[in-house]
Amino acid sequence: MRIIFLDLDGVLNSEKSCLKNPNGHFNDNPDPDHIKWLNLIIEKTGAKVVISSVWRRNASWLQMWRLLDVLGFKGEIIGQTPELHSHRGVEVQTWLNVYKDNKAFVRFSDPKPPEPIESFVILDDDQDMGELLKYLVCVDSKEGLTEADAEKAIKILLRQST
C-alpha cells in the first residue's frame, strides 16, 4: 500500500486560490484546482490518504473525506496522524509505527492484517519533518499543490520501498 500524508492549508488551498473569492475574504476551503493534482497522484499510484493537517483537530478524517468528496476528491482516506504537539514528522512516524505494529488497524469485522506499506510521501507546506524530510514534497503555500508537485510525489511513491 502507498500512503499520502496530506496537509490541507497551503496544499489544497493557497494564497492564490483564496483570491478567487469575489468578496476578497480568506476562503480556506480546499480548491478543486489543487484537488485535481491530488487525484492525479492517486490515479497514478493507487495511494491512500492519511490526514496530517491541523484540520484533524476540528473534524474527523471521515468528515474531511466528505468535504473533499464534494469538491471532486476521488481517493480514499484511511485515517489521520495523532496530535502529539510535536513536529509533523514525529506525528507521521508515530502513525507509521502504530500501523506497522497492527495495534490500531485490526477490525473485528476484518480479521486479516492490514496491507504492508510499500511507500509514502508527505505533502505539506512546512518542512518540520525531521528524519522524514526525504519523503516530503514541500508545496509553496502561495501556489498550492501543482502539477510539478504531483509529479514529484508520484516519483517518490513509485521508486521507494520502505
Structure commentary:
The protein is α/β, with parallel strands linked by helices and 162 residues long. The chain has one domain: 3-Layer(aba) Sandwich (Rossmann fold). Helix content is 33%, strand content 14%. It is built from 5 helices and 5 strands. Strand 2 (48-51), helix 3 (61-70) and strand 3 form a beta-alpha-beta unit. Helix 2 (32-45) packs parallel to helix 5.
What would you say about this model in short?
With 162 residues, this protein is an alpha/beta fold. The chain has helices at 15-18, 32-45, 61-70, 88-100, 147-159; strands at residues 2-6, 48-51, 77-80, 119-124, 136-138. It has one domain: 3-Layer(aba) Sandwich (Rossmann fold), CATH 3.40.50.
Strand content: 5-15%
Strand numbers in spatial order across the main sheet: 3-2-1-4-5
Query: Given the helix and strand composition, which structural class is it?
Result: alpha/beta
What fold name goes in the CATH topology slot? Answer: Rossmann fold
Q: What does the average pLDDT come to?
A: 85
Radius of gyration: 15 Å
Number of domains: 1
Shape type: globular
- Give the number of DSSP strands: 5
The CATH architecture designation is: 3-Layer(aba) Sandwich
Would you identify the regions where 5 or more consecutive residues have pLDDT less than 50? Answer: none
| CATH C-level class | Alpha Beta
Ends: how far apart? 11 Å
Report the major sheet: 5 strands, parallel
Determine the fraction of residues in helical runs and give it as a percent range.
25-40%
Count of DSSP-assigned helices: 5
Q: Looking at the chains present, what oligomeric state does this protein adopt? A: single chain
Order of helices and strands: EHHEHEHEEH
